[in-house]
Specification:
It is an enzyme of class 3 (hydrolase). Belongs to the peptidase A8 family. By secondary structure, this protein is mainly alpha-helical. It has helices at 44-73, 106-123, 130-152, 176-193, 212-229; strands at residues 80-83, 87-94, 162-168. The protein contains five helices and three strands; from the N terminus they run αββααβαα. A hairpin with a 3-residue loop joins strand 1 (80-83) and strand 2.
Length: 233
């Protein structure tokens, strides 16, 4: 028999004393960890975008429909009583801001509304709080509703008068968009006073409970660091 020259490589794996790195030791190579830590980004961001968009579109549609109905059914100077003289539907063309404030500065208010809409859209990708998404959605939907009136209604672009039709007691006549803007703005002020930040954090370093994925990620990271620091038994 003819012996084979040289040595044939062994198919058995060589033993190694080096430990296999775990996903916690190398988060960049982990594919099964928390999705909030993946390279795809924080999964809560699209959700906040969606909440803001749904709220804004809902407010805008409600505002447009109610204005169309008011113009079609309510005669100027002929209010419709709902609860006596306290709650009425009264058609008014408003050249000012919400609740008939700043009358006569229509084009300035139009530019301000454009800036508000652009600012919310520009920075909404940084949203990390569901409450900020709700508040900004109300403000955005209301601003768009009145902005459409200022652009497309008489007497002309940037000078159009807003349709108001709801009257409650001594309060100035208003519409759905006005209510949304005021409620949203009040909500944002309350959030700020209580330390709820735009990105979902709390003032002083505490995390906002609106972002459970981020909280779970921080908890898992803290547990891993504690395990590393614990002495061997």
């Amino acid at each position: 028999m003819t012996s084979e020259k040289g040595s044939r490589p062994s198919s058995e794996p060589r033993p190694s004393n080096e430990p296999t790195p775990s996903p916690a030791d190398n988060p960049a190579d982990s594919t099964s960890g928390n999705p909030a830590d993946s390279t795809s980004g924080n999964p809560t961001r699209p959700r906040m975008w969606l909440i803001l968009l749904v709220v804004a579109v809902t407010v805008l549609i409600a505002d447009l429909i109610t204005k169309i109905v008011a113009v079609a059914l309510i005669e100027p100077g002929d209010p419709v009583e709902i609860i006596g003289d306290t709650v009425t539907f009264k058609l008014v063309r408003n050249s000012g801001a919400a609740f008939s404030m700043a009358t006569g500065y229509t084009w300035i208010l139009t530019l301000i509304a454009l800036a508000v809409v652009a600012g919310i859209i520009r920075y909404s990708h940084r949203l990390g709080s569901i409450w900020w998404a709700l508040g900004l959605g109300l403000v955005l939907g209301g601003a768009l509703g009145n902005l459409i009136d200022r652009i497309f209604r008489a007497p002309g672009p940037l000078r159009g008068h807003v349709v108001d039709f709801m009257s409650v007691g001594w309060w100035p006549v208003f519409n759905v968009a006005d209510s949304a803007v005021v409620c949203g703005a009040i909500g944002l002020v309350v959030l700020t006073l209580f330390g709820f930040e735009f990105d979902g954090t709390r003032s002083g370093g505490a995390k906002d409970a609106d972002d459970p994925a981020r909280t779970d990620s921080d908890t898992a990271t803290g547990s891993t660091q504690s395990d590393r620091q614990a002495p061997d038994a």
